[in-house]
Specification:
With 188 residues, the protein is of the alpha/beta class. It has one domain: 3-Layer(aba) Sandwich (Rossmann fold), CATH 3.40.50. Helices cover 30% and strands 27% of the residues. The protein is built from 5 helices and 7 strands; from the N terminus they run αβαβαβαβαβββ. 40% of the residues are buried. GO terms for molecular function: 16S rRNA (guanine(966)-N(2))-methyltransferase activity. Pfam families: Cons_hypoth95.
Length: 188
Amino acid sequence: MSRIIAGVAGGNPLTSVPGTATRPTTDRVKEALFSRLESLAVIDDARVLDLYAGSGALGVESASRGARSVDLVEFDAKASDACQRNADLVNQILGGKKVSVHRSKVESFLERATARDVWDLVFLDPPYPLDEPALSAVLAKLSPHLDEGAVVVVERSSRSAEPAWPEALECFADKKYGETKLWFAEPS
């Protein structure tokens, strides 16, 4: 069972997505990821975007640790319902609506984003079958919506190639955790 690891809502169990359509980020990877993000000082007061959110675990973890706002974007109905339950839990604990759920395809969500929609921290954990050109297209659509100093984290299989970064993004680190690999990028 996945849980919120730290922060105000730390220790609370998360609703998981029924079935096998998603790959939850393991607690081990989540702990390492958030340790890295805290060392980069990008969580506190951040505007967070969790694309292909699954259960929303990364986004709600960010809210628990002090993010200003979190947008969870998930198209699958069962996953979106899990996101909503997890968002409701964290919003209740935090005493306000910090986490919002958007049932939408990622591409459509980014196409509808306006110039005012800007994020400081973005998680992308797309389904493994999403090919590299499609991932690159999403990263290109995301780029204009990143604040200066933003961090983008892409989670893929450790067997996947490094994402093809658009000109506006530059990879500054990567880390492998068993079957999972994380890439960290920032605006160039």
